[in-house]
Write a structure and sequence with these properties.
Bound molecules: fe (ii) ion
CATH topology: Ferritin
Structural class: mainly alpha
Number of helices: 6
Largest sheet: none
Number of domains: 1
Helix content: over 70%
Length: 170
């Protein structure tokens, strides 16, 4: 077997991490971050779908706002997944995982602009609640990096919620 063949056959291995957070705590935080990653990815897709399909006089502002959202959320997926890897765990994003574990649904591709905005507000709010719990747990377990990452994400989502809400006038 050549060296070139060998380097293509490296399998994931148990990663020993000695950064001051014990195995069980790293596992629990990685699991919570994985749920956030899943929903963040689903919200990327949903924001994109609404970006394409929104209609009416508010087409332009919603079209542009959702574009900003899916771009930001897509980058956030990478940050969340890389944090999970740094904790010594794989980023488990399979199609089955997304469909069975995700709490954000994309069951309508065409609806009113108002319903789209209301749904997006609810989805961002749900993610905030999950992130707040995870941030609290991470801090309790001494994982200030995950706590910091989630604080930044919460800042973004809360601002996004304000801006989405500002579109709805009654
Ligand atoms: Fe576009």
């Amino acid at each position: 077997m050549t060296g070139a063949t060998n380097i293509l056959n490296v399998k994931p291995h148990k990663e020993a991490v000695h950064t001051g957070i014990n195995d069980a705590d790293r596992k629990a935080i990685a699991k919570a971050l994985s749920a956030i990653l899943t929903d963040t990815y689903l919200l990327v897709i949903k924001s994109h779908v609404y970006h394409w399909n929104v209609v009416g006089p508010l087409f332009q502002p919603i079209h542009e706002m959702t574009e900003g959202h899916y771009e930001n959320l897509f980058k956030a997926c990478d940050e969340l997944a890389e944090r999970i890897r740094a904790l010594g765990h794989p980023a488990p994003l399979t199609d089955k995982h997304v469909l069975s574990e995700g709490s954000i649904t994309i069951d309508k591709t065409s609806t009113t602009a108002r319903e789209m905005v209301e749904e997006l507000v609810a989805d961002h709010e749900g993610l905030c609640r999950t992130m707040r719990d995870c941030a609290e747990m991470a801090e309790e377990k001494g994982d200030f990096v995950s706590h910091d990452l989630l604080t930044g994400r919460l800042t973004y989502h809360e601002k996004a919620i304000w801006m989405l809400r500002a579109i709805i006038t009654e």
